[in-house]
Amino acid sequence: MRQPAIARLEAGDHEPSVAMLARLAKKLGLALRLDLTPDSVELVSA
């Protein structure tokens, strides 16, 4: 990954793709873990 791409990520000027995050994590020796959870949970009575 080139320095301008890193600068855009650091500045928040660019939203990275999951693929880009995976490549970055691999280069940094990290594991990428995504956790998707709802903002709230609505209980429904049956």
What does this structure look like?
This protein has one domain. Helix content is 41%, strand content 0%. The chain is built from two helices and no strands. It has helices at 3-11, 18-27. The relative contact order is 0.14.
Summarize the structure.
The protein has about 45 residues and is mostly helical. The chain contains 2 helices and no strands.
Biggest β-sheet description:
none
The helix/strand order is HH
What sort of overall outline do the alpha carbons produce when their principal axes are compared?
A: elongated
| Mean of pLDDT | 87
The count of domains is: 1
Helix content: 40-55%
Number of strands: 0
Kindly provide the radius of gyration, computed on alpha-carbon positions and rounded to a whole number of angstroms. 16 Å
Low-confidence stretches: none
End-to-end distance, in Å? 52 Å
Q: What is the number of helical segments per DSSP (H or I, 4+ residues)?
A: 2
Strand content: under 5%
Structural class: mainly alpha
Question: What topology emerges from the helices and strands here?
Answer:
Blueprint: H1 3-11, H2 18-27
What attributes does this structure have?
mainly alpha
